[in-house]
């Protein structure tokens, strides 16, 4: 979960792209179905990065939550510290589908601290899902030597039928 405290990998309060008068108590529902609910923090300024919250209903009482930043057709998802909750894989797959089909994102980046004890397992899991390691210095990700970024390129097929 993206955290606005100092422990966050993507420090939203320090991100120059997100220094618009953000009030985390203001959010708008942008999508809801039986399993997936998507909200975004307000205000949203065209072309500016903004925060998106995904909640995936695993069972009647269990919800998998992912917070992200949408910027320049790329969605950045911070993997929360600690053990991933049951249903996280299904929630992430729903997030990827929504990012591709509804948000028209080109890439989904995930990030987590390199010091995590489960780093090898996370690398294996996300690689299996189709994510690739992003090399340090990549222009789309912040310079954070303590953080590992992986990217999932989304297939955006342009239609000639329009």
Describe the overall structure:
With 162 residues, the chain is α+β, with helices and mostly antiparallel strands. The chain has a single domain (16-153), classed as Aminopeptidase (3-Layer(aba) Sandwich), CATH 3.40.630.60. It has helices at 88-101, 119-128; strands spanning 27-32, 36-41, 50-57, 63-71, 74-78, 107-113, 132-133, 147-153. A hairpin with a 3-residue loop joins strand 1 and strand 2 (36-41). Mean pLDDT is 82; it is low at 1-6, 11-22 and 158-162.
SSE topology string: EEEEEHEHEE
**Quick one: overall form?**
globular
Strand order of the largest sheet: 1-2-3-4-5-6-8-7
Alpha plus pi helix count: 2
Largest sheet: 8 strands, mixed
Strand content: 25-35%
Query: N-to-C terminal Cα separation, in Å?
Result: 38 Å
A few lines on this structure:
The chain has 162 residues and is of the alpha+beta class. The chain is built from two helices and eight strands. It has helices at 88-101, 119-128, and strands at residues 27-32, 36-41, 50-57, 63-71, 74-78, 107-113, 132-133, 147-153.
Question: Any key phrases for this structure?
Answer:
162 residues; disordered C terminus; Aminopeptidase; eight-stranded mixed β-sheet; alpha+beta
Topology of helices and strands:
Elements: E1 27-32, E2 36-41, E3 50-57, E4 63-71, E5 74-78, H1 88-101, E6 107-113, H2 119-128, E7 132-133, E8 147-153
Parallel strand pairs: 5-6
Antiparallel strand pairs: 1-2, 2-3, 3-4, 4-5, 6-8, 7-8
């Amino acid at each position: 979960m993206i955290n606005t405290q100092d422990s966050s990998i993507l420090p939203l309060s320090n991100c120059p792209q997100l220094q618009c008068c953000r009030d985390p108590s203001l959010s708008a529902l942008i999508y809801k179905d039986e399993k997936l609910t998507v909200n975004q923090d307000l205000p949203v300024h065209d072309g500016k990065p903004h925060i998106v919250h995904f909640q995936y209903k695993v069972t009647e009482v269990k919800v998998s939550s992912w917070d992200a930043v949408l910027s320049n057709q790329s969605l950045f998802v911070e993997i929360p510290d600690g053990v991933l909750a049951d249903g996280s894989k299904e929630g992430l797959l729903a997030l990827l589908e929504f990012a591709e089909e509804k948000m028209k994102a080109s890439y989904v980046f995930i990030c987590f601290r390199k010091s995590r004890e489960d780093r090898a397992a996370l690398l294996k899991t996300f690689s299996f899902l189709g994510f690739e390691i992003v090399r340090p210095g990549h222009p789309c990700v912040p310079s954070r030597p303590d953080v590992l970024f992986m990217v999932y390129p989304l297939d955006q097929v342009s239609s000639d039928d329009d």
